[in-house]
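Q: My labmate handed me this sequence with no annotations at all. I'd like to see what the chain might look like in three dimensions before we decide whether it's worth expressing. Could you predict it?
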Amino acid sequence: MTQTSAPVAQRLFRHRSPYALTEPKYEAAIELLSSAIAHGGPIAAVIGIAGGGTAPAEQLATQLGVPVSHLAARHNSSDALYVQATGTVTVTVPASFPEALAGRVVLVDDICGTGTTFTAVTNALAARLTSDARVDTVALCRNVGSPTRPSWWVWDVDDWVVFPWEPRPDIPVRPLALPERVLTP
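A: Here is what I predict for the chain of 185 residues:
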């Protein structure tokens, strides 16, 4: 387990109502992301950042026909709505994780809120990356307050997002739009 702390940008929450990602729109986003990632060249592995990156990493790896591994990274102090990032990320790499990562490695998370999680995970994996390794990052959503832009993402958001694998809050939610394209830096 590694822990990193750094000053962190604040995510932007307009507090209108949380966005909700429906299952059909999620599936459409996975299709778009899979196609975009495949055009970037051969992929050695997909790594899901648990919890939110687990499901999309599994689906992307299946569609791309590559192995998937998972690790855990904890950034928020709780799962409550509208919690700001702390700047402290704890990364836990399981014993079963590959010792060496070569070629193109794709890190997957549900949201890039500040970019700190992607940075912490990449740093935690640094000793396992071979000299030819390249790390790309993928998120379903990117908070517009984030200074970091993943390699690929589908939605820019300015409020909290509830993903299909999370419980619905007891307040009104608004749907994310049907995805039409993948965003890149």
